[in-house]
Amino acid sequence: MSAAGQRAEQIADLLETALQPTGGEMLEGAFVDHWDPGTADPSDNRLAVHRLEELFRGSGFTEADAGQIQAALSRQETPHEAAAHLAGRLRAFIGPLVERMLADPDAGVRANGVRAAAVALPHERWSPLLTDPDSPAVREAVVRALSRFRTPDIAAALFERLQVETDPDVRHALVFYEGFQEVDGAASVLVDLMLHDPSPTIRSRTAFRLEHFDAGVVPPLIEALRDPACVRAAAMSLGRIGDLRALPALIDAWSDPRNRHSARFIEKALTDIANRAANAAPPPMPADLADRVRALLDAWEPADWLGRACKQRDGLPLNGNQIYIWALRPDGEILCIDHESFAHHTEPETDPLTCFAMMVQGARKDPELRDAIPRPPANARPCDSCSGNGAGPGQESGCMSCGGRGWLTRSS
Ligand SMILES: [Zn+2]
Predict the structure, then answer these.
(1) Centroid of ligand 1 to alpha carbon of 338 (angstroms)
(2) Which of 31, 64, 203, 289 is placed for a possible disulfide with 79 were both Cys, Cβ 3.0 to 4.6 Å?
(3) How many A from CA of 254 to the centre of ligand 1?
(4) What pTM did the predictor assign?
């Protein structure tokens, strides 16, 4: 940064601190450090005034201001009152100073002018620099300053910039904005960034932002679980949206050793989705479920006697354990087949937790079933031992804690 830019940075730092809602505390600190109200001797207050002069040198603080502060202190006003007086004085000269910074030919001065202007001036005075053609640093400063606002016009302006901005730092700043859900058409642009942007930071930030959108973003978020850069943010967003369709892919992501550092986020998403779905209206069964199950059954060639036992009963296997295998019929009924018994005793499964858990497991194999997962019981939670996986950790055989379901009820 140029020397002028560095000087502007100091001024911007000063104004940002002094004019924030808590800025009065900083000014008060400058008094309290050097001023002992117990002495009430005006000569002792010179240090306080000197300290303030140091703080504000170069930003328009004058001898006259120093005199006014000195006078305020000698009238034994409290530090708070003197600080408020100084803050008011600052506001009087700050406008012209910041306007000059915004129009400066030096990009470093303009960028810091934006930071200072953001606390001192209405946004209409500095937001046009969002399209500053010469300096990404200026555009980035405007994006960061505008990100505090949620109004429709600012959301629309930032969204427009997001679609044309080529500088990576400005793009990073843009995807941190939290108000794009108010803008028509934003979901498809953000989904495209999440799935295709070359920057891992942009992909994961957009995955995080999509939590504020409707259920239409669930399928792309499920797709993003396969991206190591996105898996944590996508899991958190899916957990907040609470859509049952995400459960099979979340369990797969949890089982992937590459995601072990994100495991607890994925586990939380599994629980959040079950909790939310348990308290919501049951999801409608897809009207074409019978056709889909029929097509899957027709295309399936059983490789062993267990598979043949399912197919003979017109059932698509969902999952099993050492004793039972569960299979879905085209009419939506789930069969429980005792493969240990001689005649493969079969009856309809009636336990709600098992029906829910088996459909989740089945949808891991056949994603077409993921929108047919029924509502979980209110107390369902992923099994602690296998986190919904149904298999023991690192094992081929079924989890002993949950009997291969992957889910437990809180009481069991
Ligand atoms: Zn388990």
Answers:
(1) 20
(2) 31
(3) 13
(4) 0.78
